Amino acid sequence: MGKLSKKYDHKQVETGKYEFWLNNGFFKADASSHKPRFSIVLPPPNVTGMLHLGHAWDGTLQDIIVRRKRMQGYDTLWLPGTDHAGIATQAKVEERLQKEGTNRHVLGREKFLERAYAWKEEYAAIIHKQWAKLGLSLDYSRERFTLDEGFNQAVNYVFVKLYEKGLIYRGERIINWDPVAQTALSNIEVEHKEVEGAMYYFKYVLEDNPNEYIPVATTRPETMFGDTAVAVHPKDERYRHLIGKRVLIPGSKKPIPVIADEYVDPEFGTGAVKITPAHDPNDFEVGNRHQLERIIVMNKDATMNEHALKYAGMDRFECRKQLVKDLQEEGLLIKIEKIVHQVGHSQRTHVMVEPYLSEQWFVKMKPLAEAVIENQKNPDTKVRFFPERFEKILLNWMNDIQDWCISRQLWWGHRIPAYYHKETGEVVVSMTPPEDIENYVQDEDVLDTWFSSALWPFAALGWPDTEAKDYKRYFPTDVLVTGYDIIFFWVARMIFQSLEFTGQRPFKDVLIHGMFLDSQGRIMSKSLGNGVDPMEVIERYGCDALRHFISTNSAPGADQRFMEEKLEASWNFINKIWNAANFVLMNIDENMTTEDIRIDTSKLNVSDRYILHRLNETIERVDYNYDKYEFGEAMRYLYHFIWEDYCSWYIEMSKLTLQGDDEAAKKQTQSVLVYVLDKILKLLHPFMPFVTEEIYQAIPHDYPSIMISDWPTIQESYFFPKDISAFELLRDVIKAVRTIRAEVNVPLSKPIDLYIRPTNDEAEAILTQNQEFLYRFCNPNTLIISQDVSSDEEMMTSIVTNAEILVPLKELIDIDQEIDRLEQEAKKLESEVQRCERMLSNPNFLKKAPEAKVEEERRKLQDYLSKYETVIARLKELKAMKN
């Protein structure tokens, strides 16, 4: 046993604990263990910077799951790692180089990668410190990085196998181009935002008739230099006579054909559309059907190239502005309509993306998606989503999947294992370079970061070596915890890659959490300056308070707001537990051991039996909600049990025994106090690892650390259903007397005459047998418990289930005030009676509601009726007394 300081100090409590756990190897999994296994892989944070509140939330939820499983006797692996985050990290490193007056092209690829790895080491070290501050029980002996050698082998293996199977191909397609990062993006790396724009209507004048034109509308006039046709619907009578003729591009006067294609909607706009195959995905398909030329009119930095004639070198938006002005002066602009429309922006650089014709590597997605859809039909092999609604989001995306552009024009990442013969152009895709590598050049591009991250659950465990110890024991993993914002980016891709390469789902469950918002409900961002650093929160309130706050204030899948007052409430709750532990330690022998904790159920008083019964109920409810990942609900039960049942009632009632002369009763109460506190600490440990470890070390304990102790289980011998109602009657009477005292401002120190009129023999026996509690907490001068209580004195009355409390107040209260109070209470009870009667007379309720709910309403009705009749009877007495 140890001692606790008088006041709770989170800084003192949290110092040294993580090192104690780490140095003793408590976080390590044992692949040779005979215990049942449980595994989680940490979603690897990007090495672009420090962890934010979202990471803290994500990590805390996982740690709650892992710590409980470890205490339940599982060999638990929680594997950590970091992600190289291609575009984002390269942008950060280039930004640093720019400040130093250089760039990657000056350094060259090799030197640039050295700087990128140095960046990774710098920020990985910061992330490690933050993991420790958050108390995350990670197995660092198995830590991985998505660019490490083993991972690179896995990535190359997957690329080669998909290529050999015909699921990876190289081709020209319209892709999303980020002109700042100067790389291709996949569709889901593009965020569509509403922006104010314009629809520009131009005259495409006929080549052979300058007096006739086709009106064409576009939102991107600058792309007209890449127009290779104007398309109309073949059945559109307005333009049928023009099909086959040529019109002049307004900006260049270059003639292009008028073609017919059913792609055109004659009801939309002017019914005629410009076809720009190199700058629009739909136009690309039309161009293929009509064998149209593909003309790229922009450079990779989104400036105009030589095809834009006098506008060459201009930024695309600058070109648009000047071109529109020039064409207006020429009389070729018909009108401009202001519009608000959805425009794609790069998720990483936030710049407006450009649809751009480019030769890239793609994954053919249809067969992979179909495997996921089929797998989700089988309840034994499917990935279960919590909440379930997110499965529909996954399936909707899979049903509407497009091929995945996986090549990126970066240096930081997994370089594509494709080699091109310098003379013949022959492509060799291989795990290893060709033997005559001097005749080949490797593809300059790297793979999309999500291509490697999609392999995380199995590659991190040693795959493609299927005999690797960790892979054989810990795959598939048990649960993935992540935000709803990366279901497409990551969750979906892990599922289809795992099914394709391992034949198994990557994880059994996916727990989805929401986003952290500020107190006003806004997304946290640098531009708003409303971000919150979790390390600063820990400094002020402690890690335990932060973990309690972020894990209990939101349901699965829902967003939550950062609320300072809720953090304070979490700290206050921990302080309450601390004070309760100090009370227990002050009231037990300092040499007490776990062997001294002996509970004889035959010698317990009603409050001892009540708290043990409620502990059993709490364990049951907490386990039920833990297993559903409803951590907020689990903590709600725990909070009520700890604050109300244990601290507010049991500890207070235990003082009666502890201050008494019955040594045998005292030992029983001491044992119950310590036993219940031990179970409380263990139930709380996954939420609050630091403070529970500190208190656990101070009370009698069997294990070197609470984190490897046993998880509480229900003890059948500690169920005392009869004592629950007995205790609740005592509690309700005490609360009623306290309320009466408060209403008339009579302090507890002043004795009062107290009359209790039980409504039945059982209630009378309970109150009579436990009078010591009533004397302690009600401080009666006279206490009379009888079903025959009567008095001619003016009384203040309170009605509880199975008893009526009467306190003669003599000169302390006006009888008219008491009549008014009782009349108000009668109205409330009458309203409740009517509500219950309406519900119980509703056929739909009786038919659809669970039987337990119906019975509960029937019980409430009888209770309200009994109370109502008692209040009415008392009102009659008072009115008769007054008259």
Architecture overview:
Helix content is 44%, strand content 18%. The chain starts with 9 loop residues before the first helix and ends with a helix. Strand 28 and strand 29 form a beta hairpin. It has 883 residues and is an alpha/beta fold. It contains 28 helices and 29 strands.
Side by side, the strands of the main sheet go 6-5-14-16
Tell me the β content: 15-25%
> Distance between the terminal alpha carbons, to the nearest Å?
67 Å
Q: How much helicity do the residues have? A: 40-55%
| Gyration radius, in Å | 37 Å
Main sheet characteristics: 4 strands, antiparallel
What is the number of E strands?
29
| Arithmetic mean pLDDT | 93
- Helix-and-strand structural type: alpha/beta
The low-confidence runs, each spanning 5 or more residues with pLDDT under 50, are none
Number of helices: 28
Principal-axis shape equals elongated
Topology of this structure?
Elements: H1 10-14, H2 17-23, E1 37-41, H3 53-71, E2 75-79, E3 81-82, H4 86-99, H5 104-107, H6 109-133, E4 144-145, H7 149-164, E5 168-178, E6 183-185, E7 190-206, E8 209-218, E9 229-232, E10 246-248, E11 255-260, E12 272-275, H8 281-289, H9 316-329, E13 333-346, E14 354-363, H10 366-375, E15 384-386, H11 389-399, E16 404-405, E17 407-408, E18 418-421, E19 427-429, E20 440-442, E21 446-447, H12 449-453, H13 456-459, H14 469-474, E22 477-483, H15 487-502, E23 507-513, E24 516-517, H16 534-541, H17 543-552, E25 560-561, H18 564-586, H19 606-627, H20 631-658, H21 663-684, H22 689-698, H23 721-743, E26 752-758, H24 761-769, H25 771-778, E27 780-785, E28 795-800, E29 803-808, H26 815-840, H27 843-848, H28 851-882
Parallel strand pairs: 1-2, 3-4, 9-11, 15-23, 22-23, 24-25, 26-27
Antiparallel strand pairs: 5-6, 5-14, 7-8, 7-13, 9-12, 10-11, 14-16, 17-21, 18-19, 18-20, 26-29, 28-29
Helix pairs in contact: 10-15, 16-17, 17-18, 18-20, 19-20, 19-21, 19-23, 20-21, 21-22, 23-25, 26-28
